[in-house]
Amino acid sequence: VDLPAGDLNHHWTKDVIATPDGRKLYVTVGSNSNVGENGIAAEKNRAAVLEVDRSTRRTRVFASGLRNPNGLSWNPETGELWVAVNERDEIGDDLVPDYMTSVRDGAFYGWPYSYYGQNVDERAKPQRPDLVATAIKPDYALGSHTASLGLTFSKGARLGPAYGNGAFVGQHGSWNRSVYSGYKVIFVPFHGGQPSGPPKDVLTGFIGRNGEAMGRPVGVAIDRTGALLVADDVGNIIWRVRRANGR
Which of 6, 72, 127, 134 is deepest in the core (most CB within 10 A)? Predict the structure, then answer.
């Protein structure tokens, strides 16, 4: 399967997940710009989650308007596909929040014309009010510029009742904010298949006393023992988090 790449390849990281029956793959592909400044032609099959039929190798856009989608995970309660998305820059410290959301077939999530639903971004040219009118508001904000990359639901985790139903998110951390955000792993509680409360810090301490990043979380996963695995691309290490005393 040929995925978007080329000489201009702004957001190059991708994630892939298979359906439970293994018949289809879903692949995240980030945008080729911050807010479409390289032209919409450069965004073909980008800022999207693509669906790949393994038997025919045919690819189609499953959901679009997702500026830089990354971590993918199946919601164990609803069976829905969820994704962590990095939003646009250069609107200030507190805009736009990165988010995680369920992904609907054929849905449009705003980029580049609007953010977090139907909040218009005047920088996108030409404007597309017709598309903005269809933009879906994401399910859960993860904080502005947190660079939330990793996502996995807690099914199978053996980390205690507090982490029994929800999702872990690896936040790589900000690069363009006056006060750092992210640089940690958080847990978002769920109830009835939906986020149900504020996030809880799970793994922190990645910023040293001098403000230098000692580590930056990326992917997260639950291993066969129920421990949480965290990939760190600055420390060049995989952290393993388990309940104290193995209980």
Answer: 72
